[in-house]
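User: quick one, fold this
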Amino acid sequence: MKKVRVHFGDRSYSISIGKGILKIIGEEAGRFFPGGRALVVTDRNVSPLQGPGVLKALARAGCEASLFAVPAGERSKSISQLSKIFDKLAALRMERGCGIVALGGGVVGDLAGFAAATYLRGMPYIQVPTTLLAQVDSGVGGKTAVDHPTGKNLIGAFYQPSAVIAELGALATLPERQYRAGLAEVVKHAAIADRRFFAYLEKNAAKVLRREVPTMEHVVAVNCRIKARVVEADEREAGLRQTLNFGHTLGHAVEWMAGYSNRMLHGEAVAIGMAAAARLSASAGNCSDGDASRLAALLGRFGLPTSMRNPPSGRALKAALARDKKTRGGLPKFVLMEKIGQVQTGQDVPPAGWRAALAGGPPAR
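Assistant:
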């Protein structure tokens, strides 16, 4: 088992990474839930796979736990599902010394984390991310949110978990498409902050795709270290944390246009957004064509899309991007690549180039 420490003073916490470590949830609950009770929030796909083990581990530790399962998918990241969690917490008469366990992927983590941030003005919660995307990205750093009909993650809070348990055994249960979508965030962290790790991924792509446990333990730990360094320096996204939005500007627009549906998974949209941002960077002379090509090649090797066959019109993109939280003065700010391992934030990109970049062609210089 590997451990990564995230430093936030008296709000610091540890990320435990390994296979067969789910049982430590009881020990963590005993430490952070002094009220001795917990609500395990999960989804209906994860519930039969991981729910019984978590409930048993909590019971062995003397923690009385109830389980609440939401429908799987992005549409559960809503005010209506949040309200149902509040109803359940109220019915159980949960107190501040009780806690929430977020057992699932990014949707469950965001939803349950926001419930923890707001119910009783804040109660402790433990993240147990079960998807690769959540283990390397959304489960770390304290961003919690629900979506609004006009945009993604518009209602949320920065609220750090008490602990994170990344059970690698859960990765074996992921459908191939969902696993590959999580690799988009793995590539993103390497692209923005660690050139050597990017080369490691190129060399070990086959092992990553086979989900080999020693390789994935290293991959998840490196990703968590990268993200920990960023969020420790900039918890509330005032500067350095904006680098984590690489690929997310156009990616969120693409995802929103797909209706947050199974037609376009979050990781797939981010992969397209990263490849497009790299093309825009190369076109502007900010990075080399070679680095942009290496990024697209690694994404492709992981089976991720790097372009759109029929990208939306410039007008439609502009309307979608106006909903982005990073928009200032009606236009979004892009994160562009300088080279593999380094990016620039707060960049203006003329709308004329957006569609061509999504299509896979170089925008006009």
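User: anything notable?
Assistant: Residues 5 and 168 are 18 Å apart (CA to CA).
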